[in-house]
Amino acid sequence: MGTLLVTGGAGFIGSNFVQHALDHTDDRIVVVDKLTYAGNVLSLERPLKDPRVTFVHADIADRGAMAGVFRDARPDAVLNLAAETHVDRSIDGPRPFIDTNIIGTFVLLDLSRQLVAECPPQARAAFRFLHVSTDEVYGTLGPIGLFSEETPYAPNSPYAASKAAADHLVRAYYHTYGLPVLITNCSNNYGPFQYPEKLIPLMILNALDGKPLPIYGDGGNVRDWLHVDDHCAGILLVLTNGRAGERYNIGGGNERTNIEIVDRICDALQALRPPASNSALTNRSSYRELKTFVPDRPGHDRRYAIDAARIRRELGWSPRHRFEDGLTKTVRWYVEHRDWCKAVQAGRYGRERLGLGERRG
User: Fold this and answer.
1) pLDDT tens digits, 6-27
2) Which burial class, exposed, middle or buried, applies to 265 when counting CB atoms under 10 A from its CB (0-12, 13-18, 19+)?
3) What is the C-alpha radius of gyration for the chain, rounded to an integer number of angstroms?
4) Contact 190, 200 (CB under 8 A)
5) Would strands 255-257 and 222-227 be described as parallel, antiparallel, or unpaired?
6) What is the DSSP letter of 243?
7) Domain-embedded: residue 289
8) Residue 104, domain CATH
9) Mean pLDDT for the stretch of residues 21-36
10) Residue 64 is part of which domain span?
11) Angle in degrees, 0-180, between the axes of helices 258-272 and 323-336, rounded to the nearest 10
């Protein structure tokens, strides 16, 4: 039994990963989360019932607090899933992205370096620092091609730039200090416990409430979609079998335009909650009638697509969820968990439009 330190463990991917690790390992898990608007202990309701889980409310950019966590936990591995992630929010106010994504990653790396230096040789060799990143660091693709692990970085939003900076720090700590690091770059995740500011949960909840479904630009922006369970399986596989100093792209191989996603959500709701049974859809026979095109956000990347050949070839990973089935299950989860959605949004987010660059700082 080892100890995993999971930062950002009360967020979307983090909370799903904590449960996945509980189900597939015997490890103890120390969860650290700042509990910003997008992190909530409600997402950890099931994991926190397991005696192997300890929760610590802390900011990864607070070196004093994190030094205490490292001293008490003495982790065998650090998995950094803590991040500000919403591109629209990074446009309106980039400072939190710098603080968490760059400064926070630096603090974790430096404390890990200090911990490893104090370890006996066997523990030093076994230690891993796994940094979870995004395909957005690569910029945008044209109509063809895929992002590989060798694709040059070309971030186009403050969010993407902050994650790119963190990736470079992680790589530097391997080459300069020999810290055994791993980096994963994933495509767009979907599934349960995602904060409702993101495309899929936002469209589901707006549709259920009979509100407009805002589609940026012409709706033709393409993303590669990956079920969060498949992503978590990939992270754990990289942690246990990945080669120190390497990066692994994790993608679902499910390219869809934004308007295709919205249409599929509408069709799933049409079956799960027919308009005739939804009083919010007055005088509407279809959820598709709620689609509304709005001005695009600044610097909106046109297309992302991941080449996951390395993780398939070297580690034997492959996604288990068919996109159509996974999306339908995701829609059903949000329909059945309206209380969770209301609780995590309360006083924090009213599903208003973000990302117009009206704020500064």
Assistant:
1) 999 999 999 999 999 999 999 9
2) buried
3) 20
4) yes
5) antiparallel
6) P
7) no
8) 3.40.50.720
9) 98
10) 3-190+227-254+304-321
11) 60
Q: What does the mean pLDDT of the chain come to?
A: 96
Domain count for the chain, please give it: 1
Q: Pick the catalytic residue from 159, 173, 174, 248.
A: 159
The answer to the question of residue 33 being in a domain is: yes
| Model pLDDT for residues 220-278, shown as the tens digit of each residue | 999 999 999 999 999 999 999 999 999 999 999 999 999 999 999 999 999 999 999 99
136, 224, 255, 307: which is the annotated catalytic residue?
136
Alpha carbons 3 and 275: distance in angstroms, whole number:
49
Helix, strand and coil in the chain, % to nearest 5: 45, 15, 35
Under DSSP, the state recorded for 31 is E
Q: Does 116 reside within a domain?
A: yes
| Cβ atoms of residues 254 and 189 within 8 Å | no
Alpha carbon distance, N-terminus to C-terminus of the chain: 44
Query: What phi, psi does 147 have (nearest 5°)?
Result: -80, 125
Annotated catalytic residue 230: no
Identify the active-site residue in 135, 229, 230, 307. Answer: 135
Q: Is residue 218 part of a domain?
A: no
How far is it, in rounded angstroms, from Cα 202 to Cα 283? 22
Residue 324 annotated in active site: no
Count CB-CB contacts under 10 A for residue 23: 11
Q: Per-residue DSSP letters for 86-123? A: -HHHHHH--HHHIIIIIIIHHHHHHHHHHHHHHS-HHH
| 267 is known as an active-site residue | no
Confidence of residue 358 (pLDDT cuts 50, 70, 90): low
